[in-house]
Design a protein that fits this description.
Elements: E1 9-13, H1 21-32, E2 38-43, H2 47-54, E3 58-61, H3 70-84, E4 88-92, H4 94-112, E5 121-126, H5 140-155, E6 159-162, H6 165-175, E7 180-182, H7 189-197, E8 209-213, H8 222-235, E9 240-244, H9 250-259, E10 266-270, H10 274-279, E11 283-286, H11 295-302, E12 306-310, H12 315-318, E13 324-325, H13 333-348, H14 361-374
Parallel strand pairs: 1-2, 1-4, 2-3, 4-5, 5-6, 6-7, 8-9, 8-11, 9-10, 11-12, 12-13
Helix pairs in contact: 1-14, 3-4, 4-5, 8-13
């Protein structure tokens, strides 16, 4: 792949092919551009690379990431550094973080022995660290192991970014990270609002259309949502609940809905276009155990939906106090169900929220470039 030579290369490394939150972050960077830099994304073939190509971004599809394996991923990155001489290697997600740190540290050792080798600056963005280790790691041993790995790799990282202040705090508490720069996920609020408005379906005055957009996983609090909605439905028989997404809890949640006699009011459409789904909703509920900088909440706020979410992680940095309920772990089940049901009823009275302002994609990209400059890239 031939690259223009007038701008330094920023090589962003993503170890997964799917289009999730991290992929959206990287594609938003590609759309906004990195002022003064030539952005190139290293990732496996898949939905992310396809989206980047649609945007006209430069993508290097290669054996890199969890499917390729650690040794092959390091070899791929090492070869690209030799070939491209990037000013910046910027990793996303833990697998790429460790691969990038290992690769560049080995190059540093080689240089210390007097062997000439090119050394780019190393940057990382942390998208997904939770206050509760059990959210991402199934055992205390794995949690401790990964804590040690992250502490070591951050020692050799020139620039560290967190997508929320809460994320930065957890990086410091768990990994001893210092000098972490908080740069929120950027959002084009007008475009999101317009996209949802184009899909808007009007509801009858007595209707309340509740939406959940998440994986059907234990950490999303969906069983609490279903039970709370049951209480709402008793007071508002025209209310409906759409639980979009896929995951291992589908059967369990469907059985819960049947047991509560809510089959006519609750739907499970599977994967949906999130903005289209917001167009047919009045209220978004997200009861996660942890969030860092939720794109779902950002989109819902831009679309002027009412929102109910748990006061965890970066959520209070996006939402006001009246939109939050306490973390589910702070309440017994009965109290949690009652609190969520009450908040849904209150939020449902205001079916359109107020204006929302947020960091744009371009401002996000500019802040990242400013950090590159401060760190000598």
């Amino acid at each position: 792949m031939a690259l223009e030579s007038d701008r330094p290369v920023a090589l962003h490394c993503v170890p997964v092919a799917d289009f999730g939150g991290v992929a959206r972050h990287v594609s938003d960077l590609a759309e906004a551009g990195l002022p003064g830099y030539r952005l190139l994304v290293l990732c496996p073939a898949g939905a992310l690379s396809a989206r980047l190509k649609e945007l006209g971004a430069e993508v290097w599809e290669a054996d890199f990431g969890t499917e390729a394996g650690f040794k092959t991923s390091c070899q791929t990155l090492n070869r690209l550094i030799d070939e491209l001489k990037p000013a910046v290697v910027h990793s996303h997600l833990a697998y790429a973080d460790v691969v990038a740190a290992t690769t560049i540290n080995l190059r540093r050792l080689k240089k210390l022995t007097g062997k000439g080798t090119y050394l780019p600056r190393l940057f990382t963005t942390e998208h997904g660290i939770a206050g509760d280790d059990a959210v991402y790691h199934g055992s205390s041993f794995k949690s401790k192991l990964m804590e040690t790995v992250h502490r070591v790799r951050l020692w050799a990282t020139d620039g560290k970014i967190a997508v929320s202040a809460s994320t930065a705090q957890q990086m410091g508490r768990k990994w001893g990270a210092r000098g972490v720069e908080v740069i929120y996920n950027g959002l084009d609020v007008p475009a999101t609002a317009e996209a949802v408005a184009s899909q808007r379906q009007k509801a009858a005055p007595e209707q309340l259309r509740v939406l959940s957009l998440s994986r059907l996983a234990p950490e999303k609090g969906l069983d609490i949502l279903v039970e709370a909605f049951g209480q709402v439905h008793q007071q508002l028989p025209q209310a409906s609940l759409e639980i979009a997404g896929s995951g291992e809890l589908l059967g369990q949640l469907q059985e819960q809905v049947r047991a509560l006699g809510l089959e006519e009011a609750v739907s499970f459409p599977g994967f949906v276009d999130p903005l289209e789904a917001m167009g047919r909703a009045d209220l978004l509920v997200q009861l996660s155990v942890w969030e860092n900088c939720s794109y779902t909440l950002l989109d819902a706020k831009a679309a002027r939906l009412s929102v109910v979410a748990t006061a965890v992680g970066g959520n209070p940095e996006i939402l006001s106090g009246t939109e939050l309920v306490p973390a589910l772990s702070q309440m017994d089940r009965q109290t949690a169900v009652a609190a969520v049901a009450q908040r849904i009823m209150e939020a449902g009275k205001q079916k359109e929220a107020g204006d929302f302002s947020w960091l744009t994609k371009q401002e996000m990209a500019q802040k990242i470039v400013e950090l590159y400059h401060r760190k000598g890239a």
